[in-house]
Design brief:
Structural class: mainly beta
Number of strands: 34
Number of helices: 1
Low-confidence stretches: 4-8
Mean pLDDT: 96
Helix content: under 10%
Strand content: over 45%
Length: about 500
């Protein structure tokens, strides 16, 4: 299923985001760029539109914006479900899986063992390999390759480490209920040696899952490289439910040391907003990065859903989309290293054949104003404000009458707000209707947002990607209005531009 080919009968099928054609999906897995193609694998139930029968679904893209669904890559069987993991290009055939000069792609995944395996209830790490560029896979006959006899040991992300300590593969995985990231090393992807453990630290309000570890230059300086450790957790997010946090520090080939830990051990709920969050919305989970991206760019994608209501969202026959792909950089903000996230892909290439709307500098007084000529269901909105006397100001998207999704700023509070209480269908689960907030700081006297509106979602990139919020919405197909508003005073819109994608 190509992301840009939604049918008119499927009112929530996204145009800008990937979704499986007729089945369930959740966590992205095995992300890699290989032979000019981006491969997105993901947790998939090939038999139904709810969680279960977990296998690796597969989609490919050349541009990160349009995706083509492929056949299921690695299937569950009578012995195991195929849980999350990663893929590496074993270019030097360290694993020995290569044949006739062809180096293999190797998938490292969690086997969730069933009764027929003799290891029922155990989660351990296994291998599969591909010799045709990632389209067909063979499971390793020696699986599992790493077994801690644990029921909660999962989600291996493997990277190639090269530094003073040597040159080898490093695996980061989790002991989910212990809030620990465990690190191992290997020279052949088959035999693994324990290195160290990180955690508990910062947010521990739910199980830890889907870790990732990678280096990034701070402020683009190749002589000042720092390491980022991503840890997703469920529940325990800043606005309830599933979320992802990150730590910035150093990795010496054995141990990850965090420079951004706020609380060691279990979390202090009063300090939850001090932790580093990948996204402050309800629907950005299991984010991990692509391997082998050209120019060493760091690209991530996440599951756009929340375990609070994941199996109940009103889509059919498919359930759950992926987020947009994001490019990460590490920049100094207020004297500290923070991740900056921007949408990846050539968006300008999508704008040419579709309509656009622009608003010049405009003063907005108390109230809500519908923008004539701006209506749409799939849009990119770029807007900048200079705050005035208004207590809150912003935009309302996918609006109709009194309904819509409100995205605004409260300057006195330093808060970004996404209010989806009147966004459309919300009664499928009582935890869905929400007003969610994130901290936002004034930059050069302005507040700037880029908002991607799709048929069932909004993704907000604030202040150049310093803050992001991702939320599912399920509006009526006739809810198309875009409005601007100000509460308790006035505000100046410096500029507003809307690109219509569908």
């Amino acid at each position: 299923m190509t992301a840009a080919t939604a049918t008119t009968t499927d009112i929530f099928r996204p145009a800008l985001h990937y979704s499986a054609g007729s089945t369930w999906l959740n966590d992205p897995n095995g992300l890699i760029h290989h032979d000019g193609v981006y491969h997105l694998y993901y947790q998939n139930n090939p038999l139904d539109s709810v969680w279960g029968n977990l296998s690796w679904g597969h989609a490919t893209s050349a541009d990160l914006l349009t995706w083509t669904e492929r056949p299921v890559a690695i299937s569950c069987d009578e012995k195991e479900d195929i849980f999350s993991g990663s893929i590496v290009f074993d270019r030097h055939n360290t694993s020995g899986f290569g044949q006739d000069g062809t180096a293999p792609l190797v998938a490292i995944y969690t086997s969730a063992f069933k009764a027929a395996s003799g290891l029922e209830g155990i989660q351990a790490q296994s291998l599969a390999y591909s010799l045709d560029g990632g389209y067909t896979w063979t499971k390793h006959t020696g699986n599992p390759v790493l077994n801690r006899n644990s029921a909660e040991f999962r989600d291996p992300k493997v990277i190639r480490y090269s530094g003073p300590a040597g040159d080898y593969w490093v695996m980061v995985a989790v002991e989910a209920k212990d809030f620990q990231v465990v690190l191992y090393k290997s020279h052949d992807l088959k035999s693994w040696e324990y290195l160290s453990t990180f955690g508990p630290a910062n947010a521990t309000g739910g199980v830890w899952e889907c870790p990732d570890l990678f280096p990034l230059p701070l402020d683009g300086d190749p002589n000042n490289v720092q390491w980022v450790l991503i840890v997703n957790l469920n529940p325990g997010g800043p606005n309830l439910g599933s979320a992802g946090q990150y730590f910035v520090g150093d990795f010496d080939g054995t141990t990850f040391s965090s420079a951004t830990t706020v609380t060691e051990g279990h979390q202090d709920s009063e300090r939850l907003r001090e932790y580093r969050w990948l996204d402050w919305g309800r629907d950005y989970y299991a984010a991990v990065s692509f391997a082998d991206v050209p120019d060493n760019r760091k690209l991530t994608i996440a599951w756009m859903n929340n375990w609070e209501y994941a199996n109940s969202i009103p889509t059919s026959p498919w359930r759950s989309p992926m987020s947009l792909v994001r490019e990460l950089t590490l920049q100094t903000v207020d004297g500290e290293a923070h991740l900056i996230q921007q949408p990846a892909g050539d968006w300008a290439a999508l704008e040419a054949p579709v309509a656009n709307f622009s608003l010049p500098e405009t003063a907005i007084s108390q109230g809500t104003t519908i923008l004539d000529g701006a209506a749409g269901t799939v849009q990119r909105i770029d807007v900048s404000w200079t705050p005035g006397t208004a207590e809150e100001f912003g935009v309302v998207v996918r609006g109709e009458g009194g309904q819509g999704t409100r995205i605004g700023v409260r300057p006195a509070e330093g808060t970004l707000v996404v209010d989806r209480r009147e966004s459309g269908q919300t009664d499928f689960r009582e935890t869905f209707a929400s007003i969610d907030t994130a901290p936002i700081r004034l930059m050069d006297g302005h507040y700037k947002l880029t908002v991607f509106v799709d048929r069932c979602s909004v993704e907000v990139f604030a202040q150049g990607g310093q803050v992001t919020m991702t939320e599912l919405i399920f509006p009526s197909p006739t809810s198309k209005d875009v409005s601007v508003y100000a509460l308790g005073g006035s505000v100046t819109i410096n500029s507003l531009h809307i690109s219509q994608y569908a």
